[in-house]
Amino acid sequence: MAILLDEKTKVIVQGITGREGSFHTKLMLDYGTKIVAGVTPGKGGQEVHGVPVYDTVEEAVKEHPDATASIIFVPARFAADAVYEAVDAGMKLVVVITEHIPVHEALKFINYAKQKGTTVIGPNCPGLISPGKAKLGIMPGHVFKEGPIGIISRSGTLTYEIGYALSKQGMGQSTVIGIGGDPVIGTSFTEAMELFEKDPETEALVLVGEIGGDMEERAAQMIKEGRFTKPVVAFIAGRTAPPGKRMGHAGAIIMMGTGTYQGKVKALEEAGVKVAKTPFEIPELLRQALKK
Amino acid sequence: MKLFEYEAKEILKKYGVKVPKSVLVKKGEDPIEKMKQAGLEPPVVVKSQVLVAGRGKAGGIKMAKTWDDVKRLVDELFDKPIKGIKPRLLLIEEAIPHEVELYVGMVIDRSERKPVILASKYGGMDIEEIAREKPESIIRVHVDPFIGLKGYQARLVGKKIGLTGKALSNFAKFLTALYNMFMEYDGELAESNPLALVGDEVIPLDARLIVDDNALYRHPELAKEILEESGEYTEWEIKARKKGLAFVELDGDIGIIGNGAGLTMTTMDLVYEFGGKPANFLDIGGGASAELVKTAVSFLVEFPKTKKIFMNIFGGITRCDEVAKGIVKALEELGKLEKPLVVRLAGTNEEEGREILEKHGIEAFVDPIEAVKRLMEL
Fold first, then answer.
1. Residue B91, H or E segment
2. Which of A271, B235, B261, B333 sits at 20 to 30 Å (Cα–Cα) from A79?
3. Which three-class secondary structure state does DSSP give residue B264?
4. Do domains A10-121 and A140-291 have the same CATH topology?
5. Position B56 pLDDT exceeds 90
6. Residue A124 near residue A250, CB atoms below 8 Å
7. Catalytic residues of B
8. Burial class (CB in 10 A: 0-12, 13-18, 19+), A47
């Protein structure tokens, strides 16, 4: 088992004929992801790496009724439209890789998807991978190994670094989700934690947070209240980031006094979570947490 | 992108809000003549148009009771840097006598994924101060982005900050205008503080609007070159932006380059953990070309704050050999690197990358901890 994605998940790629879409379609296929269709308006009838391309998601679903997940590589100005299209075509999971989507757009499509029962991951995220089964994203597959650790992360590259460090120590992963670096995202820490709590394969969880927002504090609250019962180790990036400055990610900003490194670490430690000072302490802290 | 007070007030007017009568003055213009043309006379408030927060406390807002005051204060304020930034424009505004100052603003609540209205009867202080000193006075009301702000919600906010009668309905009208501006202009923040209560009327003495940079394509009339005076960016941050680099200046002396925002921040933190102080954040992003790497390295060599440079790359989409080629290019162009450079390469094509670097006498580590230790020895 894994969460949200496994070797049976049938996937549609929106924006498959673009540079990024086509490149990552190849890598996802090589990893074993079951990509059944691609969509680019006006490019219907073509093929990309052997995957048939349709003009609309509706047509793709008609031909491939078992498709339940979509991944979006559409440019920012058109990405919101692509999300509505995927939701309306009945997709259960929509991963939005696209960066630079206006926050007011994300706000609306995320609320819309929620009402329709669709899970959105992102925007501005690397996607997710269930190692050994499938990947629905842009992460390098080889750094992750199959195993019992779940990872939820606000970052991309840092997640690869941590996944790599864990894999090297023989600590494989059940599912790794990059939830995205934007201020408003479709799946938060706590929402992903609910799924990991129910997943029998996941024995422990790594939370990779960063400054800005209050998702880490909410995760801590959930643990404190006993709604998440598996061992958790956390790492928070941005200890040395000054307030009021955006650190690369649109969401990584300390604003109006909230979202500080200290606040997050305090909340997590009060909930009994070990917070690693560097990403390279995570494997050891996990080992200790699992022993208890 | 932050808008100036005068810009935010111009936009508010389009939403039917009554703002104080004012004139905008450039350096060298005669403020007296401009005021007379506009039918404005003392007492007035002279306000420095800068984008940094805490302008009033920093001495950027002055009351002029006489024509002489106006002349003197205009000269004074044009020459007075507010947190390092001198204004290009001053706003001269009629003084509005008032006794009550309210706070009202709105942002997007990231966790609730909804716009949230914040209001307090204790205006004049900034929201952080109110949150610290009178947290119970802050009223929060979430708005469904599809349904919009309902009249009853606007009245509810007004009622909770102590308004009644005609003042309550005037406040509700103002709040609705502010909300509509916030939504239609892709606001990250819209705020009026202080919002003055004058009899039954509410009048925004200050107005702020921050527009989401990612949405500027929808507001082409706002997109302009204001980097220099925004007060958000330092001289070197502006230089970096012009070269297309994601760079933030910090206080230390160790130059940092990473790929990906999270990893770059973590690299800063790692240096700090080992006793160093980062001079900057510089993220080359995913899939960086050798050209971009060259630009980034050369930039940090030039950046006067850095004494040494640490580059931490974990290759996913980014290829380590491409990164190495970029470093070599920088080396060739600069003749030699005047500042020591420590590189950590891991992930995609790391062997190839290390080989390229070693041929040119640049140390490349696999283990980031070893790399930082070496960096600190230099």
1. strand B89-94
2. B261
3. helix
4. yes
5. no
6. yes
7. 103, 191
8. exposed
**pTM score, whole prediction:** 0.92
Half-sphere exposure of A37 (CA within 13 A, CB side): 26
Rounded alpha-carbon distances, angstroms, from residue B239 to A249, B68, B249: 20, 41, 11
pLDDT tens-digit readout, B140-150: 999 999 999 99
Alpha-carbon span B76 to B53, nearest angstrom: 20
- Spatial neighbors of B183 by CB under 8 A, at least 6 apart, are A104, B115, B145, B148
Q: For residue B133, what pLDDT is reported? A: 87
User: CA of B317: which chain A residue's CA is closest?
Assistant: A140
Instruction: Note whether B260 contacts A158, CB cutoff 8 Å.
Output: yes
Domains observed in chain B? 21-95 (3.30.1490.20), 100-223 (3.30.470.20), 233-377 (3.40.50.261)
Question: At the topology level of CATH, where does A140-291 sit?
Answer: Rossmann fold (3.40.50)
Q: How would DSSP label each residue in chain A?
A: --SS--TT-EEEEETTTSHHHHHHHHHHHHHT-EEEEEE-TT-TT-EETTEEEESSHHHHHHH-TT--EEEE---HHHHHHHHHHHHHTT-SEEEE------HHHHHHHHHHHHHTT-EEE-SS--EEEETTTEEEESS-GGG--EEEEEEEES-SHHHHHHHHHHHHTT--EEEEEE--SSSS-SS-HHHHHHHHHH-TT--EEEEEEESSSSHHHHHHHHHHTTS--S-EEEEEE-TTPPTT---SSTT---BTTBS-HHHHHHHHHHTT-EEESSGGGHHHHHHHHHH-
Q: Average per-residue pLDDT in chain B?
A: 93
Could you report the per-residue pLDDT of A139-197, keeping only the tens digit for each? 999 999 999 999 999 999 999 999 999 999 999 999 999 999 999 999 999 999 999 99
pLDDT bin (cut points 50, 70, 90) of residue B230 is low
* List of residues 6+ apart from B184 with CB closer than 8 A: none
Cβ distance of A104 and B215 shorter than 8 Å: yes
Tokens (6 digits) for B373: 């230790």
Are the C-beta atoms of B255 and B283 separated by less than 8 Å? no
Dist. CA A161–CA B312, nearest whole Å: 11
Task: Select from B273, B283, B317 the Cβ nearest to the Cβ of A248.
Answer: B283
Q: For B104-122, how does the pLDDT look when each residue is reduced to its tens digit (9 = 90+)? A: 999 999 999 999 999 999 9
The nearest CA of chain B is from the CA of A18 a distance in Å of 16
**Residue at A208: amino acid letter:** V
**B233 φ/ψ angles, rounded to the nearest 5 degrees:** -120, 145
pLDDT band at A124 (very low <50, low <70, confident <90, very high): very high
Q: Do A107 and B113 touch (CB under 8 A)?
A: yes
Residue with the bigger pLDDT between A33 and B84: it is: A33
CB A30 within 8 A of CB A153: no
Instruction: Find tokens 């102590």 and name the residue.
Output: B162
| Domain definitions of chain A by residue range | 10-121, 140-291
Indicate if the pLDDT at residue B224 is higher than 80: no
A101 touches chain B (CB under 8 A): yes
Task: Assess whether pLDDT exceeds 90 at residue A48.
Answer: yes
A10-121: CATH topology: Rossmann fold (3.40.50)
d(CA A33, CA A8): 8
pLDDT tens across A64-113, in order?
A: 999 999 999 999 999 999 999 999 999 999 999 999 999 999 999 999 99
- Between strands A232-237 and A274-276, the pairing is parallel
Interchain proximity B316–A138, CB inside 8 Å: yes
Shortest CB distance from A245 goes to which of B145, B248, B273? Answer: B248
